[in-house]
Design brief:
mainly alpha, two-stranded antiparallel ribbon, 16 helices, 72% helix, 1% strand
Amino acid sequence: MSEINMLFEEYSDKVNREIQPLLKNVFDGLDDITCEASLYSLLAGGKRIRPCLMLCVAEMIGLDKSMVMDFAVALEMIHTYSLIHDDLPAMDNDDLRRGKPTCHKVYGDGIALLAGDNLLNRAAERLFELSVKNPNSIRAASYMMHNSGIYGMIGGQSIDLDSSNKKISLERLYELQDKKTGALLKTSIVLPYIVAVDNSVIKPDEDLENTLNDLAYHLGLAFQIKDDILDVESDAKTLGKSVGKDERDDKSTFVTLLGLEEAKVKLEKEVKDCHEAVYKLSNKGYKVHDLNTIVYFLLMREN
């Protein structure tokens, strides 16, 4: 394992130790098959990329990570709900997620559908509870739900489903991926800034906000291009999910539209843009070691 992989694993394990007990308690005391299915997917593992990014950015800008922990839990629930629904036969029809049978393979389509709904609803409840306790959290909570909805992740999934078995333009593909993959990654990176400003931890800084948005955009795009390449070049054991789905479902991806080699060139450009954004943060005086570790890992990952 490379040094960068080891550093990321250390950071990811640290975040997981903090967030795992909170995730386990989201349906505390409820003896219900839908809750069981929700927790099956929520606790199935994974790298906890979004919470890692959120807590890392919070620490980098001087925000106590306890101020974003509830947001990190809510975001992980939203992400997991999207995976449960995405794996259903009516959508991507996948049998494997995080190296385990998908939720609907274990609990059936109906319960899996409810499990996803349950996670989304509980995430919204948690954000409402947080906003009641601290009204300064309202703008950040709204930002998360906006990026999860039709203007973000759901909008991207809608384009994705509507694009099956047809060729779409590269411009439309950019919109699809910016919403479907990029919106939640942007939430992880930009939301700590919103919380810090609204709670007067830092002063508004347009340059900082723009740099975080730039990093989020290029990281989301690079993450998806990498996924498209891995779907062609990797295997199910390494990825922990099925491969070859894009070709099976006749989907427009960066590989199918650009070709494998040009997609790799495009990935290199997005990687460069990510590093430039991190470099700008470093030049502003922020300690970017942990952020750089996570970004580098995501760009160079093999699963």
